[in-house]
Design a protein that fits this description.
Elements lengths: L10 H12 L7 E3 L4 E4 L4 E3 L2 E3 L9 E5 L2 E6 L17 E3 L11 E3 L8 E7 L15 E10 L8 H34 L1
C-alpha cells in the first residue's frame, strides 16, 4: 500500500520509460540547432544540427535547404551525398562518421556574401508537429547565417605594397635632398 495522497505507478511504467530512454522512437527525437551563426567571406562554417536524444540517421534522408532550394542531400544507406545546386557544388559536406550520434551538421566552405540567409536542416522521416513554422511532415530546424566582408587581418597586395612604396620613395627623395644640401654647403665652405 502507498501512503495516503501518494499514487504509485505500476512497475511496468518504469520499464517502459527505461526502454524509451534506451531506444528512442523517431517521433520522440527532436532536432537541436544553434542560434544565428556569424561568418566572414572566405570562412568555413559548420551549421550545427543534431538529433536529441542521439538517433542513428545512417538510414534516413537528410536535406539541407537554402532559399527554397535543396543544397545538400544524404539518401539513407548511401555513402555519397548529392549537391545539385551549382553554387554549392564542392562546398558542402556532412560528417558521416557522426551519423550514429545523430549529428547531421553541415559544413559550408569558402562562404560568400550570397550565402547569407536562412538554412533549413530537414529529416523527412522523423515526424513532429511541435515545430510551428513547419507545414511539412518531418522535422526541420531553421538557422540564420550572417556573412560580413573579408577577414580584417587579410591584407591585399596593393593594400600593403602601395603604402610601403610611397614611404620608401619619400625616404629616398628626402635622403637625396639632404645629401645634396650638405654637398652644396661643403662646396660653399671650401671656396
Amino acid at each position: 500500500m502507498s501512503p495516503p495522497g501518494r499514487a504509485t505507478s505500476p512497475p511496468w511504467n518504469i520499464s517502459v520509460d527505461f526502454f524509451k530512454a534506451l531506444f528512442p522512437l523517431p517521433d520522440q527525437v527532436k532536432l537541436v540547432g544553434h542560434e544565428p551563426i556569424h561568418a566572414k567571406v572566405g570562412d568555413d562554417v559548420i551549421l550545427p544540427c543534431r538529433l536529441m536524444p542521439p538517433y542513428d540517421v545512417n538510414h534516413l534522408i537528410i536535406e539541407w535547404r537554402f532559399k527554397d532550394r535543396i543544397i545538400h542531400v544524404h539518401r539513407g544507406g548511401s555513402k555519397d551525398d548529392e549537391t545539385s545546386d551549382p553554387e554549392y557544388k564542392g562546398r558542402t559536406s556532412l560528417f558521416h562518421d557522426e551519423f550514429e550520434k545523430g549529428d547531421i551538421s553541415l559544413k559550408l566552405t569558402n562562404v560568400t556574401k550570397e550565402d547569407e540567409g536562412n538554412y533549413i536542416c530537414f529529416v523527412p522521416k522523423l515526424e513532429s508537429n511541435k515545430l510551428a513554422f513547419s507545414k511539412q511532415k518531418g522535422m526541420l530546424k531553421l538557422f540564420f547565417l550572417f556573412v560580413t566582408g573579408p577577414h580584417p587581418g587579410v591584407i591585399g597586395v596593393f593594400d600593403f605594397v602601395l603604402p610601403v612604396a610611397v614611404v620608401l620613395t619619400m625616404l629616398i627623395i628626402i635622403n637625396y635632398v639632404v645629401h645634396r644640401q650638405k654637398a652644396e654647403r661643403n662646396k660653399s665652405f671650401s671656396l
